[in-house]
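Standup notes
- DV: blocked on the single-chain target, sequence here:
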Amino acid sequence: MLASRLNLLTPRLSWLRGCSTTAVGQQQQRQVPAEAVHDPLQAHALKEQCILVDENDKSIGAASKADCHRVDPKTGDVRLHRAFSVFLFNANGEMLVQKRSSHKITFPNTYTNACCSHPLHEIEQERQESNALGIRLAAQRRLNYELGIPTEELQPEDFRYLTRIHYADTGDGVWGEHEIDYILFLQKDVTLRPNSNEVSEVRYLRRDKIDEAVAKFGAPLTPWFSLILQHRLKLWWDNLHRLEQFEDLKNIQRF
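- DV (later): unblocked, structure below
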């Protein structure tokens, strides 16, 4: 009787051995379709096509957002792609920060600058490279989607393109970043209606309170925001009305 019961259990035990669980921050043992484990809207966004680039920011093709952010389990590499970071200031010179929602697949529940995203390969206008027009149009699109800023309040020429930053971070070991990140500054009072699927909190910070505010966040910063804050942001912020002296459109900063 016991032997027969064990024989019945054997197929189920074999099936269970084929399953895996993943604790936060650990490498996945078995790839599971993103749609099965993530918020539906965020999972759908993984199908968007990012622009692959080489280390000189030359476009070399396209790959899905999922493929561009998945850490290779053998090499630890993440595919290099084009991105942008918007730093938004109001008329008083206060900087907007957001907390990424818990639904986000990469770096959820972290504080960051106003908007960080990608120009999309499938949107022809966002592939335009002259005067970073494609990047500016992508920024306009994402600020509307994430923060609810009406598109008529922002024009591509409103963004000041400062420089590009090349950085990488392996995140939780499953999802990471490797980007040529275009830095865009914008000073304007805007209407905010945050998308709760993207953003859980927004606030404006004063320049003289930035360190105190960050220390009290109670949550980590995104890696790109942390690097920019450490290396460049305070200098740029101190010269908000003289930013032209810091424009470097030829060189890519390597962090």
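- Follow-up: Confidence is low (pLDDT under 50) at residues 1-35.
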